[in-house]
Every structure is written in structure tokens, then in C-alpha cells.
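FIELD: query
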Amino acid sequence: MTKKKKSNKGPRRKSMKREARLRSARDTGWVAKYQGKNIIKGYSNWFAVDLITAIKELRMLGIAIDSAREAEVRASIESLAEARKRQRAASARKKLDELYPDSDGTFAYIAGYTAGGFPYGTTWEELGEEPPWAED
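FIELD: result
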């Protein structure tokens, strides 16, 4: 007889659909038993849902959540998204700098510098191209 493989999917509550989460929270008395300071974050972590979903479902469970608190949560989510976007853009710029170390906005290839410190070499215009980062 072969040995049965164990499935490591994590707790069932983390893969439940909304109806099952609400039923589970009601049946177990999760809201009444919650001891923490931030019920939105606690619900979000316990059932593995995002904060907006946690707010909606807690309201369905009868918990009064202030609209100002919801606005705070939405603002924090948006600011995190903006930060990620800026970080991705910085990473993309860094990769381009690594791909084209001897170039800038004017020169496709910088062959050297004059005694006065001015660069010389092949321009993007001479090549008939635009810098790859000009699309941004």
C-alpha cells in the first residue's frame, strides 16, 4: 500500500468564499472573541482577505465601522500602490542605466571627454534612433 501524501494548503479558513467566511465568523463567535485592537486587520489576517473586503464583511456581520476609518484604509492602500509604482519605475531606470552605461540623453555612445569635461561620441540623432527611455 502506498503512503498517502499530505497536502499542505494551510488552514481551510484561508481559502473560504465570502458566504463560508461569514458563516464561520457567526458560528464560532469570532467577532465576540476577538481580543485585539484593530478588528479590520485581525479579520483580514485570520481569513486571508484584503482590508476592503474585511471592512465589507465586518459590516455584514453587524460591526459598525466608521467611514473615516474606511477612507484611511483606502488612502493607505493607494499610497502603497503609488510607492510600488515608483519603485518599479526606479528599478526600470536602473536596468536601463546598466544596459547603456556609456550613454545619456544626447549621446548613444560616449567615446570620451574633452579637456573641458564635455562628452563626445555618437549621438542618438546620428543613429536615427531615440533613447530607449524616451518613451516614458
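FIELD: remark
Residues 100-136 form one domain.
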